[in-house]
Amino acid sequence: MKENKIDVLILIDEEENLTAFRLFKVYTDSKGRLMMSLIKDNVYYPFKVVQTDEGFTELFSDTNMRYRVSGISYKVPNQNKNKIDFRYVIADSFEQSLNLSQYIS
């Protein structure tokens, strides 16, 4: 699916703390790194995105905190064209987190 269909990402840190962010944009910085800009409480947070050999997506904050994606909420068209439904994918833990490349093309 396109990144504009993603609404909310729930990030999990190594201590199993969950934090919800809205996805603002996915981009490549001047060094060629894949980045995400996420929003929480009207504040934008940049994250460096890394794909691990094990198939996990890890995000690193500007303070170098490591997160993984524990949940995704995304928009899907309803049969009624004037309405949007939301679907959810949730992982159980930091070790069983999600691979974003399965959801964003």
Name the strands of the widest sheet in spatial order. Answer: 1-2-3-4-5-6
CA-based gyration radius: 14 Å
Order of helices and strands: EEEEEEE
User: Could you report the average pLDDT, rounded to the nearest whole number?
Assistant: 88
Helix content: under 10%
Largest sheet: 6 strands, antiparallel, barrel
The structural class is mainly beta
Distance between the termini: 6 Å
Q: Which consecutive residue ranges, at least 5 long each, have pLDDT under 50?
A: none
So how many helices? 0
The proportion of strand residues reads: over 45%
What is this structure's SSE topology?
Elements: E1 6-13, E2 18-28, E3 34-40, E4 43-51, E5 57-61, E6 66-77, E7 84-90
Antiparallel strand pairs: 1-2, 1-6, 2-3, 3-4, 4-5, 5-6, 6-7
Quick take:
0% of the residues lie in helices and 56% in strands. The chain has strands spanning 6-13, 18-28, 34-40, 43-51, 57-61, 66-77, 84-90. The chain has a six-stranded antiparallel barrel.
Walkthrough of the structure:
With 105 residues, the protein is mainly beta. Helix content is 0%, strand content 56%. The protein has no helices and seven strands. It has strands at residues 6-13, 18-28, 34-40, 43-51, 57-61, 66-77, 84-90. The chain has a six-stranded antiparallel beta barrel. A hairpin with a 6-residue loop joins strand 6 and strand 7 (84-90).
